[in-house]
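#struct-queue
[09:14] JT: dropping the first one here, sequence first, then the structure tokens:
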Amino acid sequence: MKKMLLILALVLVLAVAGSALAEGDLLSQIQERGTLVIATEGDWAPWTYHDEDDKLVGLDVEIGTLIAEGLGVEPEFQETAWDSILAGVDAGRFDIACNGVGYTEERAEKYAFSTPYVYTHKVLVVGKDNEDIKTVEDLKGKKTANSASSTYAALAESYGATLTAVDTLAETVLLLEQGRVDATINAQVSIEDYLSAHPNAGIKVVQVLSGDPVVFPFRKGEDTDTLVEAVNAILDAAREDGRLAAISEKYFGMDLTQED
């Protein structure tokens, strides 16, 4: 059954690719050059980070590699700050972003998206001695730390918080421990991973919020449609044969590939 799914996915990708080559769109350009240019941060475990040997690893690195292999090309990861990722996709510097990007209606107006590959919960985090903030309703007038254009920042601001922009989770935790910010909203898996590696960190989770679909963004346009279709075919096959679930289990300790 798994073999049949892989064959069907490959047939679909090749069919899409054949159409793309005739039209000269982004998929044909990728296959002609032989590489899929992937934007990622490289410092947001367990999504994308460097291990003790300084090798780029993580859930998004493995799935990005899986996608490239499904397209018949090599993955070319380019590490960049979060605030440059979507802009770089839009400008055509990157073919795709593999960096735990959450789906929002606002982003969907500007970017094309793959089908969701995982669904993540958010958590509200404060310093370990903070007793003033229990829920997001308590964020009004408080300072939060997040990447400036992230969905987490937008959510905190919607509750009346003032944003302090940061580039990494480590910076966020440091600001919380120093009392320079009051809270952060972040991915539950990222916070749990950080606390697993730093059990004495001076932070605590005070609220778990609803889950969100996580997707791969592409530049929007007719010339990217076949690439999106091909990527979705690869993801569908990997979801059906259990490869996505295995990668999720490896990095998150649980299967987050299903919505419910």
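[09:21] JT: and here's the second one, same format:
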Amino acid sequence: MAGVLSVLVFIAVFAAMFREVVAGHVAVLAGAAAFLLIGSLSGGYTPQMAVNSIYFETLALIFGMSAMSALIAKSGLFVHLAEGMAEHSLGNGWWVLVMMSLVTYAIALVTNNIATMVIILPITLNICRRVELNPVPLIIVEIVAANLGGASTMIGDFPNMIIASAGVLHFNDFISGMMVPCLVLLALTLVFFEYRLPKWRSKPKPIASRADDADHIFGHPTVDQNLLRKGLFIFGLALAGFVLAGTIDVRPGWIAFVAGLAALVFGGFKEDDIFQACGGHDILFFVGLFVMVGGLTAVGVLDWCVFAIDWLGGSSTVFRTLVFLWLVAGLTAFIGGSTSAALFAPVAASLVTATDPQTAWWALSLGILAGSSGALSGATSGSLAVSHYERFVKRHPELLKMIPAGQGLGHREYARWGMPIMALFLCFSTLYIVSALN
């Protein structure tokens, strides 16, 4: 009975989040409270077990990276970088897509997907309005590029932070294990969009006649050099710490935590901004999520997943890992990457072998990457992109003439692009995992 109730509560929480009934962190905290109530009544899940289920290193990584990213973003560097590259590609639809994909990927290497898309979306929509481009494919490729950037490093997205804590992995492990396949997948994504958009080009005006409009659109934002120096110095020290963490036997999460404290001290944030700068809502979300996943583990739900993987994959480590990869991708498309990482981390640990301690974790990360790119509900920044797009179109209805009827940014339109990308990612990831295990 406790297992059934736990699963129902878990489903109810994510249904409420999907329908945006309440904020995500409120929903999961309420769900965590329900899990603790069920556990106390059944005696199978105690408060101490709930505390033990929390990955505190992940929370430290979220805090530290959020604070450092907020400091660098406050300096204006990210917006300056994005707008400068976009301006140089202005007027050519394909180069707008390529340049914005690359800058999105670069920013996502060091900050979470939501923050990345907050920076990129206004620039993208203004470019499309200026050069009369359909913004939907561009936004979709940026969501995918943000997923790829986040999956490339230990600090790029929340799922990898969870995987780093659960698998006791270091920064260099992700560079060697994930960055190369993600760069290959980024190249394949651009080839895919070139194939799907053979006529997707703007008709630019001469450069001279675009100058005033470009100034109006981009504004040439200034960069606060003092804040930038502080931010880059703190981030540089943290990055050096991440690289040397394995050698000096210090976990990356605690390096990020100390660097985050320094960023808050030297960032000059107002009191009202500190909670947001240190990722307060994200930390609350993950505390509740970890407690719920701990409750599912306690009632044996994750054991069912392990049994299913063993039954489908048999005794072959390769087949079991591939079943796991595809299972994670399929569920991530519905429940999101962060939830999948927390939910399947214990399952990934069960697939780890003494001779190959890392491939199961890469299968988890690649499965999350594929699923989060396949559907808006799987992308961390999906709902943000839709709401920002809808608000912009309401303010600038002239953009609608660039968008074919029935092909606005919604779940169905995204799936037209996302599902083939998901299939492409899974095929490549399958080959990557097979080669790693052989």
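[09:30] RK: nice, looked through the second one.
[09:31] RK: The two ends are 43 Å apart (CA to CA).
[09:31] JT: good to know. Confidence is low (pLDDT under 50) at residues 204-217.
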